[in-house]
Design brief:
The protein is mainly α. It has one domain. The chain has helices at 3-26, 29-37, 40-67, 74-88, 96-108, 112-140, 149-169, 177-193, 198-223, 230-243, 254-265, 270-287, 290-301. Helix 3 packs across helix 12 (270-287), helix 6 (112-140) packs antiparallel against helix 10 (230-243) and helix 11 (254-265) crosses helix 12.
Length: 320
């Protein structure tokens, strides 16, 4: 088995192993409790928050895609983002929806490369803002990782400076592969993320998205019976959200494992962490169901979403 196949299988099997270990150590009770405790109020609140976060994430994607010259209208971006989220929470890996979104948009814009890059930069920008917010919150509020956060913060700053220094050290006047990659990345950063007004909109949208996901996790914790104060739940929510970027089985696996550890380390109970993660998974799945409607409508109409109108690039801003 080659490395690519091994990695593909590992992305699916490891999350299942996490769930299997949790079931073995804790039994099925926390999982069944999570399913049983979901109520209409939690579903409605999560769905309402999802509307806000999806619109903001779609707006962020629209800004990035526009900077790369493959702009798309906001309504189409929102529909495609809902579809993407639904695919992410129903298919293994947790990124199938994003890949599909990039491919579909790229085909409609007649540039698959830039369509995929737009999605990659959009998700990367969101993760960067989430990481900054997570570090700040974990530095300010008590959490299971409070003692390590100063070292993490310093390490993050050093890593950023190291990347900048390495990038500057790459020769810029030749046509070597490293130089061409650096040029392409720099151009994408400038056009998609750091252009006038773009970074403000991307940052604002990302902050709202992170806040919405954290609020949804705290709703799940309350629904699961947790009485911990918000100041204690917020760091745990951000830690669990950090784990959600890892490969998963349709969103399941790392989330439950990290939630179990974080709740246990905070003295709130490992079982409570698993139950909260299960509630979160269920209410998020329901909140993403409009994406299924988008898929069904697109299938009946025989069209691909989103429909885009490619914007030609100026001659001086050609992309590789």
């Amino acid at each position: 088995m080659n490395r690519r196949a091994l990695w593909a299988w590992g992305r699916f099997i490891v999350p299942l192993l996490v769930l299997a270990v949790l079931s073995w150590r804790l039994g099925t009770g926390p999982f069944l409790d999570g399913l049983r405790m979901v109520d209409g109020r939690a579903l409605a609140e999560a769905a309402g928050i999802a509307v806000l976060t999806t619109v903001c994430a779609a707006w962020r994607w629209k800004i990035v895609a526009g900077g790369l010259g493959v702009g798309l209208p906001l309504p189409a971006a929102v529909a495609a983002y809902y579809r993407s989220q639904f695919l992410n929470v129903t298919l293994p890996g947790g990124v199938v929806g994003d890949v599909h979104r990039g491919l579909s948009h790229g085909r409609d814009a007649r540039d698959v490369g830039r369509g995929l890059r737009a999605v990659a930069w959009e998700r990367s920008a969101g993760q960067a803002v989430q990481c900054v917010l997570t570090v700040v919150v974990l530095l300010v509020l008590p959490s299971p990782v409070s003692s390590a956060m100063p070292v993490v913060a310093v390490g993050a700053v050093v890593a950023v400076f190291a990347v900048v220094l390495v990038a500057r050290a790459i020769p810029g006047g030749d046509r070597s592969v490293p130089a061409r990659i650096r040029t392409a990345l720099g151009r994408d950063l400038r056009d998609a993320l750091l252009s006038r007004g773009a970074w403000r909109g991307i940052t604002l949208a990302s902050v709202v998205v992170v806040a919405g996901h954290a609020a949804t996790f705290m709703i799940a914790a309350r629904t699961a019976g947790s009485t911990a104060p918000a100041s204690q739940l917020l760091p745990i929510a951000l830690l669990a959200m950090t784990g959600m970027v890892l490969p998963s089985a349709a969103g399941w696996g790392p989330r439950e494992g990290i939630a179990a550890w974080a709740f246990g380390a905070a003295g709130l109970g490992v079982q409570q962490g698993v139950t909260t993660a299960v509630v979160y998974g269920v209410i998020v799945f329901v909140a993403c169901l409009p994406g299924a409607v988008v898929l069904v409508v697109a299938w009946f109409r025989g069209i691909r979403l989103p429909e885009t109108s490619p914007r030609p690039l100026p001659q001086t801003a050609a992309h590789v």
